Amino acid sequence: MKKFTSVQDVADLNGLVKEALHLKENPYQYKKLGENKTLGLIFLNPSLRTRLSTQKAALNLGMNVMVMNLDKEGWALETQDGAVMNGTTVEHIKEAAAVMGQYCDILGIRSFPKLQNREEDYSEDLLQQFISYSKAPIVSLESATRHPLQSLADLLTINENSPAGKRPKVVLTWAPHVKAIPQCVANSFAEWMGQADVDLVITHPEGYELSEEFTAGATVTTDQQEALERADFVYVKNWSSYQDYGKVLTDGKGWMLTDEKLEATHNAKVMHCLPVRRNVELSDEILDGACSLVLEQANNRTYAAQAVLKQMLESL
Ligand code: CP
């Protein structure tokens, strides 16, 4: 594996899931594989889970890890080709990515969308420039449009908790939030579920349709209660509008998931990528209840990252 930016970079999805679940049982089996290899984790945005789980995954494989908060600790980065750098930017991504690629055998990069210009965000310009200018394989730690390590961890969690012998019904439901949130997690979850052995239903208020690029094969409805009928998994996530790009169109009153709404499901397990705003996105009763899988998802982040890093180390 030379890059991991979306499900399209995975040649054998079932194989990768099996690998991750095997690593969960045997986390130190490949401790020699990463000896004298370095993972660089570059953050332009905050993180708890991605930072620590990917670091732990690399340590389990025997790698060294360097972490840099590039937005706070690095030089102000220029990304425009041909820019005359007589303003506030100090270093061009051409040099920065190339240099980091010299120090590291694998690079991870987190860069959120700005939610101001859809074309710019959806071009994934920064991620693509890192891929172009760094010779090291690149792992997305969440980009402008996707969060593939989260989606792989979510798929592991669904596999582990699926009712035996049944193709599970998985519902991705929009939830309220206090501010505009990127579409990355929802896009990515929809895209990965589209490749998995599940029936996916997406529900959201009008105006929150995701790009069809990610939702192929899913049923989409604005009727949340109908969507929840006989669901086995309910994935809760807020996102801002794709059409009216980056806008919050509603206060989302009535869209927060409750135990009462879950009665229509097939004893559904509830998922969220975290961090979660309690009693805004998801109620205390659900997060603290037996149906919540949020901590299992977070735990699986380590083994998702470990499977990806292992395949990259094997192809160095
Ligand atoms: N789910 C997730 O990516 O968490 P962090 O933003 O804390 O890394």
UniProtKB/TrEMBL annotation:
Catalytically driven reaction(s): N(2)-succinyl-L-ornithine + carbamoyl phosphate = N(2)-succinyl-L-citrulline + phosphate + H(+)
* Functional summary from the UniProt entry: Catalyzes the transfer of the carbamoyl group from carbamoyl phosphate to the delta-amino group of N(2)-succinyl-L-ornithine to produce N(2)-succinyl-L-citrulline. Is essential for arginine biosynthesis.
| Gene Ontology MF term list | amino acid binding; ornithine carbamoyltransferase activity
Oligomer and partners: Homotrimer.
Q: Does the keyword Metal-binding apply?
A: no
Q: What is its EC number?
A: 2.1.3.11
Which family is annotated?
Belongs to the aspartate/ornithine carbamoyltransferase superfamily. SOTCase family.
Instruction: Specify the Aspartate/ornithine carbamoyltransferase Asp/Orn-binding domain's residue ranges.
Output: 185-311
Keyword set for this entry?
Amino-acid biosynthesis, Arginine biosynthesis, Transferase
The name this protein goes by in its record = N-succinylornithine carbamoyltransferase
Name the Pfam families on file. Answer: OTCace, OTCace_N
Q: Where is the Aspartate/ornithine carbamoyltransferase carbamoyl-P binding domain?
A: 2-160
Which amino acid positions bind N(2)-succinyl-L-ornithine, per UniProt? 142, 177, 237, 277
Coiled-coil stretches, from where to where? none
Q: In which pathway does it act?
A: Amino-acid biosynthesis; L-arginine biosynthesis
Q: Does the keyword Transferase apply?
A: yes
A single BP term in Gene Ontology: L-arginine biosynthetic process via ornithine
Kindly report, in one word, the top-level EC class recorded for this enzyme.
transferase
Q: Where does carbamoyl phosphate bind?
A: 47-50, 75, 110, 147-150, 273-274, 301
